[in-house]
């Protein structure tokens, strides 16, 4: 946990969060390994064609299908751009108490940035972002090579920090090239169209420098549920025919998704832009950028991190 007295940041294990979310749904509502490969119009509905050959007809299509989103492409978004940086992350599991205080530690070097934060008394999460060479990119899926890259870069770091990397099992190393969506795409693009919208990384992929990728996806979920809840709770008169009721419901869904898009557009632009800017400054390889960062910008950037994480997206209506 990181705190400045009124705000705090906590590190949560991803699988625990996913299990908590999944437990709120009936087990038959979740379909695994079923990537969307095509989207078809069908009156006021959409038909999804999945990679396993099945089809699903839906009144509302919410694309939460990640940075390579098929739904985002259908809405007209381009592929997410590469930030010319790569990231390695992992976690070390200890048999006994690791001894670290519940604090977020950051370290900077020539073209790299690293961070370490405990998740509980026996586990420590860490990340490492750097500007890889072409040779590094060829080895980005080799965990043993990745581990050595991190240890070599962190050779001047405190021994207890290096021990976290050394104690990380190879299967707990994860590497990816950092990608983001250009902010102006959110400004002029279709976050929603008809009864289709995007959320999470499909909507606003960003570099991990704010640690707000997953958090902002949860924000999307709250706002989206509130908007759709209002749309589905509105009852039309009983005099409407089935076809007319379907059309009226479609129109309510369209307006709800527009409301969601308008409410989340600037938050997405803000996070993408700020994360990218912080990444450039904190990982800048030039001596001038490093001097300004260390001498003048360190406290400002730390405060910005807390400020962006303290966003209030409102509450759901409990009716």
TrEMBL record:
This is FAD-binding domain-containing protein. Belongs to the 3-hydroxybenzoate 6-hydroxylase family. Pfam families: FAD_binding_3. Residues 52-243 form the FAD-binding domain. SUPFAM superfamilies: FAD/NAD(P)-binding domain. Keywords: Monooxygenase, Oxidoreductase.
């Amino acid at each position: 946990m990181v705190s400045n007295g009124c705000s705090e940041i906590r590190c949560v294990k991803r699988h625990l969060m996913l299990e908590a979310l999944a437990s709120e749904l009936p087990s038959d509502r979740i379909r695994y390994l079923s990537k969307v490969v095509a989207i078809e119009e069908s009156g006021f509905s959409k038909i999804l064609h999945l990679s396993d050959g099945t089809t699903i007809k839906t009144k509302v299509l919410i694309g939460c299908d990640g940075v390579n989103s098929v739904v985002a492409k259908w809405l007209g978004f381009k592929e997410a751009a590469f930030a010319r940086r790569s990231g390695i992350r992992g976690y070390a599991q200890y048999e006994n108490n690791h001894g670290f205080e519940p604090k977020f530690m950051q370290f900077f070097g020539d073209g790299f940035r690293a961070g370490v934060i405990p998740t509980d008394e026996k586990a420590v999460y860490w990340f490492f972002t750097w500007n890889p060479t072409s040779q590094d990119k060829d080895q980005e899926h080799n965990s043993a090579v990745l581990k050595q890259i991190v240890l070599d870069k962190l050779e001047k770091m405190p021994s207890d920090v290096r021990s976290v990397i050394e104690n990380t099992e190879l299967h707990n190393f994860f590497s990816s090239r950092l990608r983001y969506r250009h902010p102006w795409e959110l400004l002029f693009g279709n976050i929603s169209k008809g009864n289709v919208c995007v959320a999470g990384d499909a909507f606003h992929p960003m570099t991990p420098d704010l640690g707000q990728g997953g958090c902002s996806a949860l924000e999307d979920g709250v706002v989206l549920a509130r908007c759709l809840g209002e749309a589905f709770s509105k009852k039309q008169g009983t005099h409407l025919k089935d076809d007319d009721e379907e059309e009226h419901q479609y129109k309510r869904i369209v307006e709800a998704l527009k409301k969601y898009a308008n409410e989340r557009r600037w938050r997405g632009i803000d996070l993408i832009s700020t994360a990218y800017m912080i990444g450039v400054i904190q990982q800048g390889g030039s001596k001038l950028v490093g001097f300004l960062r260390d001498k003048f910008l360190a406290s400002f950037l730390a405060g910005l991190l807390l400020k962006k994480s303290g966003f209030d997206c409102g509450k759901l209506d409990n009716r």
